[in-house]
Records
---
Amino acid sequence: MRSLEHTWHSCGRQERGGAAVTPSDSPSFVCSFRKPASIVRRTIGPRHTQSAVGSRRSSFRWSHFVAGLEPLKVLSSAAAQMQMSRWVVAALLGHSPVPPAAQPAASRSRSGSLCAPPSSPASPEDVPRSQHGRVSSQAAATPPVRGSSDAAWYNVSLEFPSNVRAPHNYAEALHKSLLFYWAQRSGPMPVKRLAWRSDSCLECVGDHGEDLSGGYYEAGGSYLKFTLPTAFTVTQLAWGLVESRDGYAKVGELEEALGAVKLQGGLCLLWTPEEHALWAPPREAHYITEEDPGSEVAGEVAAALAATSIAFKEENATYSAELLRHAKEVYAFGEEHQGSYMDSKQPGLKDHAKHYPSSGYHDELAWGALWIYLATQEDAYMQTALKYYEMLQSWSGDNYSYDWDNKAPGMHVLLTQLFPSEMMPYAQNAHRFFHAYIPGPDRTVHMTAGGLSWRSAWGVLRYSGNVAQLAMVHSTWAYANGDSPYAAALFNYGQSQIDYMLGHTGGRSFVIGYGKNPPLLPFHKDSFYSYINYPTRGQPYQLQHDDFHDSRIPNRFIVYGALAGGPQADDSYEDSRGWCCAAFSEVAIDYNAGFQSALAKLAEYYDGLQQFSDCELDLGWDHPNATLALQPQWSEGDCYHGCCGKRVRSQKREEHAQGPRRRRQARSEATSEHEPFLHHAHKHTL
């Protein structure tokens, strides 16, 4: 949840920042920083204040063995990964030639972190489906491991299609989600893909000369780089690459997805003592040190580095090894010097803790150790992960959300894959977690009339997207463990949440630039005030403030793929940039992370999806102030960025329903001469 304290910035995103490491002999890491008085810091507010009533096959092999525990010899290549997403759920019901539960553990294969299907999968075309086309939830030929008393609610029908023909263009949604991460880039742009975004933060240098220009700005309402949610975003995206690599490859997005993770992963490499790096601009910074620790930050960064290491294992073994080495170093610091930044003695971190609260760090220490284990198969890290996981059993935190602050649900899912037994506490904990969301007698999380799990007011779709990703990942374990109805319920539930976001129910999409009636006024400053269209530049603060928050002018540029915060508990949504609606209309990088990974899983499962292209998107190049000399000239055969020989329509696609006409009107109302990139900000207090 976010506070209503925002940075107001000019067009350039010049002054931004984040977290880092001091150049002393003993490593210390920054959790946050304070900007000078000329800029008001944008922070995260308390999370609990509003409670909720040609595919490419991976050859990477995983070997799972835990010292002191019965070894689980589940070795395999990830060649079955694409098959898993395409047919595992399709084959859930009565179509398993070799019941997974009957196989010895040593013969079960695993792809990435997925339990792979039997060696002779059924084809998707042979799978029985309901009249709605969704995965049927009739009884399976292989009896579920779970008792029959639990099985009745698995048959709850979710009214959406799940057949060979996708109900939505998941390839388009995936393409646009990745484009959103371009809109949030900091530093020099390798290519000017969006006319309205330029190089930024070029002079962002640490106290010791470190280049801190790269990475992502965390949200549409700020120009800052917060470590904890950003690192969690990287972990989620990297996990999605490990789980659904073939989904990305199938629709031509693998290279782009790897680049999106590498951009921030490279900045995370600055978290090493020998490089004396700061993840912060040349401003007053506040450090996590031995005396003022922040184990939750170090643990999540270690997880992000380790997960990214796994994702790059094939493409760049040297880079992968470098990431893993740094993950171990960061983790060692976080574990050796335990404590939370919530208890910091520094005034700046005390202030930070009020706005960006952490509920504990044991989950991050467990999470980081587990991801390092998955990357190394070193038993010591598994033992460490289990040690901290046990501490979570009495944790008083919110165990029914999965986000930047709570990693416990992700631990449930990963540990269940490693120890696939109903008798283990990991599967039981995962079972309780998902039962809180999936329709049934044990559901505790509010579900709207439209079918959305409404977890919390601020950024509700972030929670739904994260749980959707977990549910679809966990469905593969349920299938491999012989619980076909449960697996079907998990997968169909996950898809129902993603389809809701894409506009399947309720008459509107919540993804900017996608589908029917998407938001036109997202809380995203750069797409409203761009450096090529900033009509109030130099005007008094209050005028700019009111223009952004109170005007009904649609954002002048389309921030494609950004997932809005979401609807209210009754499915209603007010398309507004006002403070009244910031919780629902703001966009952020962590909102898209689970959502995008779930899209990749759906892209794996469905046939008939084609690679999407920038060709007909309105990227701002028709604006009179756009510098056409900077417009990329894609090769004729580039079907990702260019038109690949296709005839371009004279009229851009109407991504926003009536949006193009309204945006053209907004542009005509805001005629401003092209001005050079400015490096100034307006102070304000809210």
---
Amino acid sequence: MDFKSLVENAQDLMFRYSFQPKQGFEYVNSAAKAITGYTPEEFYADPCIEYRLVHSKVRFLLEDLVEAPATKNNSLVLPWVHKNGSLVWVEQKVTPIYDEEDNLIAVEGVVRDITRWKQAEEELQLQRSYFETLFDESPLVMAILNEEGKIIKVNKNFQNTFKYKESEAKDNFLRELIVPKDEVEKSQQLFNKILKNKMVNEETVRKRKDGSEIEVSIIGTPIEFNDRKSRICIIYKDITERKKDERQIKYLSFHDELTGLYNRVYFERELELANSQQHIPLSLIVADVNNLKLVNDVFGHGKGDELLKIVAKILKESCRENDIVVRWGGDEFIILLPNTTKNQVELVVKRIKENIPKYEEVEGPFTEISIALGYVTKESPIRNIDKIMAKAEDRMYRNKLRGSKSTKSSIISSLETTLLEKNYETKEHADRLEKISMKMGKYLGLSNNQLDNLDLLARLHDIGKVAISDEILMKPAKLTEEEWERIKMHPEIGCRIANSLAELTPIANIILSHHERWDGTGYPQRLKGENIPLLARIIAICDAYDVMTNERPYKTAMSHQTAITELKECAESQFDPELVKVFIELFDNQSKLKAL
């Protein structure tokens, strides 16, 4: 079936509405008739038909959406008015279409009929509210029956629970009022047991007057009044919430709490079932989240958890309904694919890779989600499943190792880009700092290895700021003491980042020290004099000079000579006095700096 046929036969209403050159519907599929009562031709003939469809009370939402469709896939839940006057609840998503000059020329949209879902949601909310009220007032319900099973009396809680007034319940068979059809036979057996002077204690389901059902525990016992006639007392307790909790406990016993995926216990149970002739060929995918430790170390485990949940969504979305997606533990996932050939599992792996970009809006500096994958197919029932799993895991680790270098380089590049975005620093500042510091490093006779580290340091000495919120970094007003303490953490955060990446490990301790002062009053270690790494002392002088001589949003630029004077005054307190002399010898006038 071609794409056009798929769209035309879709159950959702799909449309394109143009604003230029002519306002009106360009396309509406045939689902319009089923959802709205209007044919596509009626949409084409009336550009304003959607305003008649949308209920008047919420029409302003649609108008706002059309006037300012700021983002893709805006989604609204709206009441529409069917051609026959009935109310139809829909979920409407629209995507703005712009021309090359960024003018809005059209919107494309999908409209789904969610009336049943809306009604079910409203009903569920009403029932939940009702249950909570009942629980607060009393969970116990009582009814007195005669030997035939007819109701003699019910208490107030019975009326509240089953929604029968006493006048409606009296003289009726209990089973006809509150016992579901599929429970009638069992209910009669319990009743007969009580008639034989036996107490019953059971858990079952009962129905209310409106037909809705509740889970209850039942205690039934024979009683005898003064008239010597036998009576039966039935005591109910609403256990709906308890049963819900039991189901939740059962759910949690087989599911990972963080991601909602199946857990290792469930996987091992299912693996036994799947490892049989009827499920051959059986495929396995092992997936490992790259750089989770880095995210945890730098941004905290909350961000690491977010990353794991996103990866879980990617894997779940990429798999078929009967595939079993499992969080194996830590950063590792396993997917069990019964009746899946090698070619089919390769398609699943391909979908995983294709779906990753959809979820790359992760908070923090990482614009790429990286997952190492390994997969294998068991085509014979006699092959050992443990060896199959080991093979898939081995392939995953090989792929992880193969992609490690490019992933690390990508992260470094991403960190640098994020640093520029989050700070007042510009690329021009980074470039100037690199040139000034390298000139100074060469003049001092640093080795090639030291120069390489100095080059990295010039670009990444403030890398720890990627973990500081924009509100603090870009705050125009004076920082609070708490905010300033947070800012002062960036050397330590930067050191942790560098230690997590092999390429940056050599400069980790220098990043930690770049805010130390010659007199020992800096931070975070209060190092003094030559205990401060040489490269950190160089960067401190070069960075201070460039900041002073270039305009910022919060200050005007100093002249070259004023900045030199400031460096001299801060020698022996903030800066290494000998290195300040070297800087002045190198750049005694501004023309030498401009020549870089």
---
Amino acid sequence: STPISPAEIPFETAQLSPMARSFYGENKRVANQAIKAAGYRFRFPTYRVALERMWAEGNWRDGAPRSPMRG
């Protein structure tokens, strides 16, 4: 069976805490040239690809976040 992605919810109507709304409401752009120049290779080319993989594999966990730098 193929997993079905959840429907996208418009930001304006999403039920978010004030802190989450503030965090997601800001546009943050970062450059990753320095980390790439140091030889780091990203597992996924974009966050969307990473989320799609996590959704497809059911790879969602509760608990403390894991750092991708620690493996």
